[in-house]
Amino acid sequence: MTTQDIAAAIERAQTVLMRRPDMGLHDDMPGMARWQGGVSTMVSHVNGAQMVTDMPTELGGSGEHVSPGWLVRAGLAACTVTTIAMVAAAEGIALDSLDVRADSRSDARGLLRLPGDDGGHCYPGPRDVRMVVRIAAAGVPAERLRALVDTAQRCSPMGSAIEQAVPVALQVEVLDA
After folding, report:
1. Which domain holds residue 73?
2. pTM listed for this prediction
């Protein structure tokens, strides 16, 4: 799709949602995972796309596939790229290049249910998340590109979910073996 096609699609969606704000709230496509044995899973999308995840060998996996944590970072990076591209298109900016690197630092002791330095529960999630955005658009000043990235970050669904720590409702269904 061209920048103009994306901008036109965004404008149509904005027009509809300005008239009918209730249409903005929707159920997202579910992420589904099925245990494959060991610490391997098959993640699936309703459209049929699938990907295997596994853990590194140090944590009992084969190390042959991406980890679930990597999928979170990759999803964050992909969502950020997508949101920046959408904001750029809406503002009439034709990007020449755009890439995002998302990384984090975690303490494996939390995953392994080991105590932290203070003897208490060790947090299993990432302690921090960092992103580096590399962006270029001919004839567009650096400050405008920085502002575009800031605007996009404020409306990035995955960035917002991570920054605001959305609560997770857990329901357990025990099946007959």
Report:
1. 67-163
2. 0.90
